[in-house]
């Protein structure tokens, strides 16, 4: 019988915790990894509705991208939905493990999955660990690469909508249009890293959670930006399931891998 510790050890040979940013909280979140695993579920977020899904599906190991414990709990008052979620996980003996910025930086991880979705070739990291400019190598935050053919601003926006299956996005257009072919991408909240995209010659930058004043700076520096939202990282649900399925075959594990069916995107797009 495969234990949580065996799964974690194999995964961390591919994606060590040392790749994570210093502020991050990756690895074991809740539970006992010594327990055998019968059914594992991949998810982007661990929210109360996802935990209830895990309980209903008899899952005993949740493998998430986003950590659930960025900050220590001040109390364990279960009238707080977050605390009740912890109680539900513990009472149902569900272990939770998270790979966050280490998965973002890993070769063959989150940002490679996103770059592949965009069809980028000749990719390199946008940043190294510690938020410095990326060097030629396979590991580091974000990716920069080339589209097969150049696009206009509007064509690129429609392309992002299509490949990421989005309801909408926010487009930050420079005043002067230029062809888009060299593209930088960083999943999640990457607005602050736009100077790296400019430095590495990107015509466009794809990320999420861009703030108002940062958007003005991007526009002033002639950088097209597609804010595709944070939830685009839901690509990790399938990405992690596929990766763990590969490890299962290699290591002859014997448990079931399922993907969450819950959409944890909190935003809805309302058009006039």
TrEMBL record:
It comes from Limosilactobacillus secaliphilus. Pfam families: DUF34_NIF3. Belongs to the GTP cyclohydrolase I type 2/NIF3 family. GO terms for cellular component: cytoplasm. This is GTP cyclohydrolase 1 type 2 homolog. GO terms for molecular function: metal ion binding. A divalent metal cation binds at residues 65-66, 104, 230, 233. PANTHER family: GTP CYCLOHYDROLASE 1 TYPE 2 HOMOLOG, NGG1 INTERACTING FACTOR 3. Keywords: Metal-binding. Homohexamer.
